[in-house]
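Repro:
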Amino acid sequence: MNTELNKPVYDHILVRYGELTTKGKNRKDFINRLVHNMRNALWEFDRLEYEKTHDRLYIHLHESDHEAVCERIRHVFGIRSFSLAMKVPSTIEDIRAACLQIANASDKETFKVAARRSDKQFSYISDEINRIVAGDILKTDRWKVDVKNPQLKITIEVHQGFACIMTDVMLGAGGYPVGIGGKAMVMLSGGIDSPVAAYLTMKRGIAIECIHYASPPYTSQRAQEKVEELARLLAHYQGHITLHIVPFTDLQLAIYEHGDESYAITLMRRMMYRIAAKLAQKQHALAIVNGESIGQVASQTLESMNVINSVVTMPVIRPVAALDKLEIIEIAKQIDTYETSIQPFEDCCTIFTPKNPVTKPTAVKCEKLESRFDWEKLVDACVENTKVVQIYPAKQLEEADLF
């Protein structure tokens, strides 16, 4: 056996599927979508090879930077966990050599070996593999066995024709592969809530495009840049996001000119929903998504939601509706959008907030106020003059096969 004290050379990453393992006949489609997304996320690493199995995905590194690859994988939905691995022939000699190489490269002092033999034709049962490998490692005086809380856990999986030797288990993003559940249009305001809603939507396997309502000169270019940065942070989970910048100034001014001030936010949200629905249909999206949280502001009472929602027929998904603000903030910090969201560049909703917004609006009153001006023409103008910005997490190949 080769017992030289070399640093372990990881030649593979073993990926464990997440929630998609619960799928039956559709499992193959979920796995194919996951591999598609992985290739997009790892487009820069052109030497990688992917091997799909029923319950694992093996990525052959071919000497690619394993730390950089792992950082990208961390943002891909559909993965429960992953591990750097040494893939060796399934002989006891090769398994022993690989495990000893890993142990010799470690600065830990306690260890545990955990073998699992899926190939029942392999000559040694799991317990025998554990004892043989542990015996080799214990020949080095500094090592002690700790089966409950080891500093180093060496995991061995023996399959037909090969074995995988692993140590650390890194958590993935979970959920379903983005795109397997269709596409939705996210109303991205620039606050804390809507980026979290976008993240949770992607986690359920839904690809997203985003809409932002800009009201220059009342909202600044910095406010738009803030939203673009939020979209860039979210693009890590999808590879690419199409951002629709809607020129909302004329419509918003018409609302304040012809409407009742207390109803201004309600009318404004109704117009936003109408625009979002038109853009969603244009982009073949199946739902609208926003960051509304029940009772958080006047336009998010159940009465307000009902009146606002009534202007569209497509589903409106509210992923954070039942979360309190602290829970939303915690997720925002986890996905690194919080610090950008709290930058002091206001959007059109905060700039035009009335002093006493209505909390229990009625559809009849809204329709009466809307009848005072030609809102349909203004809504159509917003859609026609929408600017489209393509957002990437970093510089990427234009021809990449993204959503």
